[in-house]
Specification:
This protein has 331 residues and is α/β, with parallel strands linked by helices. Helix content is 33%, strand content 15%. The radius of gyration is 22 Å and the shape is globular. The structure holds NADP nicotinamide-adenine-dinucleotide phosphate and glyoxylic acid.
């Protein structure tokens, strides 16, 4: 029987899948993630780990966990899981691509609309007794319909997000490493450079993974190029944006607003200047949080573990261990 450490309570059939394959599960009971020392201790005794974006697995932890064979992240992003170090140690890292794309795209639209039309701000004001009358000048926002939408990173989520723009008669620009001619043909998206996209877009939405290339992809130089009054949407990773530069762009009125599901750090301390801007919407990293999607993400992570522990290549590997660690237990 292999031991699988699961770093949080997870929905769906996730644990059933692991049990049906004959594995033992140890679920971290806390509402908060295991602190680094507890994570390291749990990995040391585990054959597999089912981790969240909040669990930072370091090379040192991997070195210290000789029986560990797979880190199955319950997320599409895997910047927390040190895939290169894991490969060197013979450990698979897997993710959950695709299943969360539509749910995440829906949510990105919800916060983009919320920022553009003061939804969260006016709700807070109404609850605080601020609704005195219909006001011709209250909560004036900006229109999305027929505006230009710039999508940075046209992968699974970026494309799902951009497709929804057709219902708003928006023109879609995209900047991605590779050109997506099918999406251009099917949906009329226009491929352009990052600089041109920033210059022309009324709304800019980030959908790239976090890596060395995308760290602070939106920095002072990029904010200097944005169309005045445009709105930034970030459901990718907080570190894709240089947050000091974002604060400066909001302060100077270069950006009209921002909708952020991810920040740097997470959670964002309440005294952070971003909270002082009424035109900024901040949500606690919940873009994939529908019951159906989170259940499927957990189940995919479990399926990755079952395959890796059976000595097979897991279906959603993001690294390639030079020589995967052999089994130290019989399932
Ligand atoms: P994906 O399908 O891999 O798409 C990523 C896209 O980014 C690809 O099209 C890729 O280009 C592009 N890209 C990569 N590096 C780039 C760069 N330097 N410049 C421009 N484009 C670049 O991933 P996904 O499923 O859409 O997810 C994207 C990210 O969203 C995840 O990595 C995760 O961090 C984040 N996410 C957040 C939440 C949330 O709860 N807030 C939920 C899900 C995902 P190519 O096509 O050329 O490779
Ligand atoms: C969530 O942030 C994910 O990467 O799935």
């Amino acid at each position: 029987m292999a031991r699988v450490f699961v770093t949080r309570t997870v929905p769906g059939r996730t644990l059933d899948i692991l049990h049906e394959a004959g594995h033992e599960t140890i679920v971290w009971p806390g509402e908060l993630p295991p602190p680094p020392d507890d994570l390291a201790a749990a990995l040391r005794d585990a054959d597999a780990a089912l981790t969240m974006v909040t669990d930072r697995v370091t090379g040192e932890m991997l070195e210290d966990s000789p029986s560990l064979r797979i880190i199955a992240n319950m997320a599409v992003g895997y910047d927390n899981a040190s895939p290169e170090a894991a490969a060197r140690h013979g450990v698979w890292v897997t993710n959950t691509p695709g299943v969360l794309a539509e749910t995440t795209a829906d949510f990105a639209w919800s916060i983009m609309l919320a920022a553009a039309r003061n939804v969260a701000l006016s709700d807070r004001d109404t609850r605080a007794g601020g609704w005195k009358t219909w006001s011709p000048t209250g909560f004036l926002g900006v229109d999305l319909y027929r505006a230009t939408l710039g999508v940075i990173g046209l992968g699974e989520i970026g494309e799902a997000f951009a497709r929804r723009a057709r219902g708003f008669d928006m023109h879609v620009l995209y900047a991605s490493r590779t050109r997506k001619t099918e999406a251009e043909r099917d949906y009329g998206f226009e491929w352009t450079s990052l600089a041109d996209l920033l210059h022309r877009s009324d709304f800019i939405s980030l959908h790239v993974p976090l890596n060395d290339e995308t760290h602070h992809l939106m920095g002072p130089e990029q904010f200097a190029r944005v169309k005045p009054g445009s709105v930034l949407v970030n459901t990718a990773r907080g570190q894709v944006v240089d947050q000091d530069a974002l604060v400066e762009a909001l302060r100077e009125g270069r950006l009209g607003g921002a909708a952020l599901d991810v920040t740097d750090p997470e959670p964002l301390p309440l005294e952070h200047p971003l909270f002082s801007f009424p035109q900024v919407v901040i949500t606690p990293h919940i873009a994939s949080a529908s019951l159906a999607t989170r259940s499927r993400m957990g189940e995919m992570a479990a399926e990755n573990i079952v395959d890796a522990l059976a000595g097979k290549e897991p279906p959603h590997a993001v690294n390639r261990p030079v020589s995967p660690r052999p089994s130290s237990s019989t399932p």
